[in-house]
Structure formats: structure tokens, C-alpha cells
Design brief:
InterPro entries: OB_DEPS-1_1st, OB_DEPS-1_2nd
Distance between the termini: 65 Å
Radius of gyration: 31 Å
Strand order of the largest sheet: 7-3-2-1-6-8
Helix content: under 10%
Mean pLDDT: 84
Strand content: 35-45%
Oligomer: single chain
Number of domains: 4
């Protein structure tokens, strides 16, 4: 029995005689493939009428009260076994999709998956793919099934508009579709291995017992408009992500101590935050003037990573804010900085990054940066390519380049490729620090 979604609301629009329904099929690849069918605006209704001979059942035509988004079903063939091309008789069935009228636009709530480049919403081979407007490309995380409000409307000139309006929430029932997206072909993601509880075979040493797929009563701090960092240290390596950014969802301010629920997204190895509300028991985190979470960091034994004791987590410095501090005499002391959260890594781990320096030593560090003392001395480095690029482990985000005339190692690497990673001392170049552009 064919089904159709009513695209007119109440009385047909100007120039239209009948209500119109979009035939619901699962293989629309283009808007040009959409099939519309007219629905009679009047419907036969049986009534009981009192006559001198007693009650009598009669039929009369009444105006059909058809509203946008209602789903109708009808017989595919009429009494003469002809294919129905105009719907006279129909029944209302359970709506296929929620609907609304917003800003004068008629919209359906459809599910889809954002591509990795954030430009396309794949509609799971049910509806045509949608272009994602730039204004909302960062309102959703890629490779997650989400519900989105899509304008599907018959215009005054009888053309059909089909475009993405906004995102609503995660489509939990369709997360299994993510691995079927064409850009994920051949990529298995991070689906959990099945473990037989009755199997007594010892687990491999690298096996890590997964945490529950649904977490409740979690505590943490809002670190950015997308990420919450867990309060318990054992969950610091788990990414808790606000998948859909939507106005009016009452997401707490950055720095707020919160309680939340989260569901695991197997393919990405991250957790989608479901409910998050301010909590009591811990103070909120201090913020910088620019609205970042303010913490104090110190160096660690792992070059490029710094420890924030207040949050019991490691942070890194992708924008190289700490270069002058690391070279200065102040590098062995702690430093007050503003941090935020970047997108999770390819393996689903959260990433906390430094966004600014707020320490009282900042002025002294800036003065040092302008002085003649801002140079490297006896700094170990590694030549990493034939262009003379040097990597200094202590300064992983700084780029140094030397000329062949100043570097015996550079010349050796040209003739002996196996010496490409040969160590050199940056002080032997007698050069001021300069970053390659």
C-alpha cells in the first residue's frame, strides 16, 4: 500500500485545486526524482440520518482536514485494476516523520550523517543528500547520525524547495548507518569486540575492559562549548562531546561544574552527552578575560605536553604560545594559562589545548622575546628532511630551517640518506631563532 506525506497545509495554496502528497519511497537520489500525487480535498463520510421509515445510512462529501506532515495510505490500484494517479480514498496512518512550521517554512525532521569535510549531509539513501550551509557546518560532529529540520515546501510558483535548515539532536536509532557512508568505505571504526562471558581464555595483555555504553550520574567541568572533561581521573581519556549545538538547549557556561549522562558512539569511540545540568559539591573553574578555563601548568618528562594539576590532565600547545617561555629562564617554574578543548583525536581521545598565557610573568617573557638573549644554545635537534628542517624535541611546535653551507649534517644527509635523522646541535649554527614560514 503506497504512502505519502502531505505537503500542503489545510486548504491548497493559490493556483492549486487539490492537496498534494509526496510519495514516500526509499530511493530518492535527487529532488528531480520526487513524486507528487494529488489528493482529493473532499472525502466521502458516512452518516446516520433519521427518515420517516427510520434511521438510514447515507454518504456525503465533506472537506478533508489535511495538514502538513500527515501520512496517508491508499490502494495502489482502483476497482478497475488501474494504477491510482489521483487519490480519492485514503486512510491516515502513523506519521513517518515529525513536522513543524518555522519562520513560515514547512519542515520535516529527517535523519542524516555529516561528511568528514562538513559539507554534505548524507541522508542514508532515503532522501537526496543535502548541502550544509557554512553557518551551521560546525554545529554537528561529523560521522554521527543526527536529526535535522529540512524545509520541504511547495512554493507559490509550484516549485519544490528541499534544503537544510538546522540540526536538532542525535538520531540514536540510526548510528549503525555511519559505517555505511561512502567516505567510510573500508574503515571499520572502533566497534567494540564481542566478549563471551563464559569463555575462560585469558585476554591479551593490551585488552582494555570497555566501560558501559550508557553512563549516568557523571560529574565534570564544561571546558568548551562542545566538550566536558570528567571529574574522575580514570575517565580523563574519555571524550564527552556535545554532538549538536542548538539554541535553547540550556548548555551550561564554560567552567561550570556539572552532572551529565552520555551514550557511547561506537564508530568514533567517543561519548555523546545527553543531559547536562549544573551540579553542586565543587566550585566552578576560574576563567580568563577571553572566556577560557584558567589553570596552572608545569613541564613534564614528555616534550610538548604539560600537566594541569587542578584538572589532573595533560594539555598541549598546537599554536606554540609557550615557545618563548620554554626558552627563557622561567621554564622550570609553573605558568598560568587559559585552556580549551579541541576536537577529539582520530582514536577518540579528548585533546585539551593552551589558548593563551595569563601569568604575571607574561610581560617579562615578552621582553625576553625581544632581547638578544632569545636564542638557542647547545639545543639538540634532528634534521628531518633534505630542505634543512630541524626538529627540536623540547620545542615540538617550532620550525627551524638551516642552509646547507652552515650544516655539515645537511650535506651528509644529501649523500647518505641513512643519516637523515642524524642529530645536530643548533648552537653550532650561531643563528638567532627564526621560524620557517
Amino acid at each position: 500500500m503506497p504512502r505519502g506525506i502531505v505537503l500542503t497545509n489545510g486548504s491548497p495554496g493559490a493556483g492549486m485545486v487539490y492537496n498534494m502528497a509526496l510519495i514516500f519511497e526509499d530511493n530518492y537520489s535527487s529532488v528531480r526524482d520526487f513524486k507528487l500525487i494529488a489528493v482529493n480535498k473532499q472525502k466521502t463520510k458516512k452518516q446516520i440520518k433519521q427518515t420517516p421509515r427510520g434511521p438510514k445510512e447515507i454518504e456525503r462529501l465533506v472537506d478533508a482536514d489535511l495538514l502538513y506532515g500527515q501520512t496517508l495510505a491508499w490502494d495502489e490500484y482502483d476497482e478497475q485494476n488501474r494504477k491510482v494517479e489521483f487519490v480519492y480514498d485514503y486512510v491516515r496512518v502513523q506519521p513517518v516523520y515529525p513536522c513543524r512550521i518555522s519562520e513560515g517554512k514547512t519542515q520535516l525532521l529527517l535523519h542524516g550523517i555529516m561528511s568528514r569535510n562538513r559539507k554534505v549531509l548524507w541522508m542514508c539513501n532515503i532522501w537526496p543528500d543535502l548541502e550544509i550551509p557554512y553557518r551551521i557546518q560546525h554545529d554537528v560532529h561529523p560521522n554521527v547520525a543526527v536529526n535535522a529540520w529540512v524545509t520541504v515546501q511547495i512554493e507559490a510558483d509550484h516549485s519544490l524547495t528541499y534544503e537544510l535548515h538546522s540540526f536538532h539532536d542525535t538520531a540514536d536509532s540510526f548510528q549503525h548507518c555511519v559505517q555505511n557512508a561512502k567516505w567510510n568505505e573500508g574503515i571499520q571504526g572502533f566497534l567494540q569486540p564481542l566478549v563471551d562471558p563464559l569463555d575462560n581464555t585469558p585476554m591479551a595483555p593490551e585488552f582494555v575492559q570497555p566501560i558501559s555504553d550508557m553512563l549516568t550520574g557523571m560529574k565534570g567541568y564544561v571546558l568548551s562549548k562542545k566538550i566536558v572533561i570528567a571529574y574522575e581521573e580514570k575517565h580523563k581519556d574519555v571524550c564527552f562531546h556535545r554532538i549538536v549545538i542548538r539554541d535553547g538547549d540550556r548548555y551550561p557556561a564554560i567552567g561550570t561544574y556539572v552532572t551529565f549522562k552520555a551514550d557511547r558512539l561506537d564508530y568514533l569511540n567517543i561519548f555523546a552527552i545527553k543531559e547536562v545540568t549544573p551540579a553542586y559539591g565543587e566550585n566552578n573553574l576560574p576563567l580568563t578575560k577571553n572566556g577560557l578555563v584558567q589553570v596552572t601548568i608545569s613541564k613534564t618528562d614528555h616534550d610538548g605536553f604539560y600537566y594541569a594539576k587542578a584538572l589532573k590532565c595533560y594539555v598541549d600547545d598546537p599554536e606554540n604560545h609557550l615557545e618563548a617561555w620554554l626558552i627563557s629562564k622561567y621554564s622550570n617554574s609553573t605558568l598560568r594559562v587559559g585552556i580549551t578543548a579541541a576536537e577529539p583525536s582520530a582514536k577518540g581521545n579528548p585533546r585539551f589545548v593552551i589558548g593563551e598565557i595569563t601569568d604575571q610573568k607574561l610581560q617579562k617573557i615578552e621582553e625576553f622575546k625581544k632581547s638578544d638573549e632569545f636564542r638557542l644554545k647547545d639545543e639538540p635537534g634532528i634534521v628531518v628532511d633534505f630542505m634543512g628542517t630541524i626538529h627540536a624535541p623540547r620545542l615540538p611546535k617550532s620550525n627551524f630551517r638551516i642552509s646547507a653551507t652552515n650544516s655539515p649534517t645537511r650535506i651528509l644527509s644529501t649523500w647518505y640518506p641513512d643519516l637523515l635523522l642524524r642529530k645536530t646541535r643548533l648552537s653550532s649554527l650561531d643563528h638567532r631563532i627564526h621560524q620557517s614560514q
